[in-house]
Specification:
Strand 1, helix 1 and strand 2 form a beta-alpha-beta unit. The chain has six helices and five strands. The mean pLDDT is about 95. The longest helix is centred in the C-terminal third of the chain and has 20 residues. It has one domain: HUPs (Rossmann fold). The strands form two sheets. The protein has a three-stranded parallel beta sheet with strand order 1-2-3, with helices on both faces. By secondary structure, it is α/β, with parallel strands linked by helices. It binds adenosine-5'-diphosphate. The site of adenosine-5'-diphosphate has 16 residues, from helix 1 and strand 4.
């Protein structure tokens, strides 16, 4: 069975990520979408919230599982006995960063972990989790960026955060 890991922050998952998930699920027998618990970033959603949102978003794709991990991707991949990571490429600006990570993982894993890139579907090329959050924080329209239930969760989160900062 050919399996791959799609690692990322997914803070929150967007239509761009979902497009990569659907397409990679057609190439591999199993895709594990795994939320990286990265202590150096300050995310909008907790790892548990991101995992729950992802599970709901991919529930109709039978060969996709959702998980989370801490630490190095190569260690997580080894534990799962998986040899391929999937990443998405939007623009040339993603390329340099992604190339460096892919090469580092290849060297660190002694050739056991390869990275496969899928280029974004053009209609999602501009989409990023951070721009979605920025738009939502000003009550802008994110209906073309994320599924409806996720848009609602993002607006709720900003409502709570705004209330908290008004109370200070
Ligand atoms: P990270 O913090 O690890 O970059 P992200 O959640 O931002 O995590 O992205 C995970 C992966 O999905 C990355 O490979 C990123 O390039 C890709 N990705 C993000 N948005 C899109 C999009 N709109 N289209 C295609 N790939 C995307």
């Amino acid at each position: 069975m050919k399996a791959a890991i799609y690692p990322g922050s997914f803070d929150p998952v967007t239509f761009g990520h979902l497009d990569i998930i659907k397409r990679s699920a057609e190439i591999f027998d199993e895709i594990i979408v795994s939320v990286l618990d990265n202590k150096t970033k300050s995310p909008l959603f907790s790892v548990e919230e991101r995992v729950t949102m992802l599970k709901e978003a991919v529930k109709d794709i039978p060969n996709v599982k959702v998980d989370s991990f801490r630490g190095l991707l190569i260690d997580y991949a080894k534990e799962k006995n998986i040899h391929v990571a999937v990443r998405g490429l939007r623009a040339i600006t993603d390329f340099e960063y992604e190339l460096q990570i892919a090469q580092t993982n290849h060297v660190l894993s002694k050739g056991r972990l390869d990275t496969m890139f899928l280029t974004t579907t053009l209609e999602y090329a501009y989409l990023s989790s951070s721009s979605v959050k920025e738009i939502a924080s000003f009550n802008g329209d994110i209906s073309g960026c994320v599924p409806k239930f996720i848009a609602d969760l993002i607006y709720d989160k900003y409502r709570i955060l705004n209330q908290e900062s008004n109370e200070l």
